[in-house]
Fold this sequence. Notes:
Blueprint: E1 2-10, H1 13-20, E2 30-38, H2 57-77
Antiparallel strand pairs: 1-2
Amino acid sequence: MKLFLYILYFSPLSALSSAVGADAIQRTIVTSGQGEVSVAPNMVELNMQLQTINKDGTRAKRELDDQFNRLLRAFALLDIPKDEIIASSLQLASHYNYASKKS
């Protein structure tokens, strides 16, 4: 990520000196500059969903656990520790096919 910073400073003395009169010495200070900052990212957020469909709820949960464990092993290969991974929710719902009217 790059952050650019521009600074422009204008002294109010120039406006004041012109109000005093034309014979006064005009005093003006004008500065400008540019800076660049590069920062390496230290966090990433990844939202994903694992899904399995099975008539037996226990078997579906077991299949989902297997998928999640494979995902944890893949993250371990990327040097992502388990304590930085959050599985926030688990939903179990019936699957209904409206075309054939079967669940």
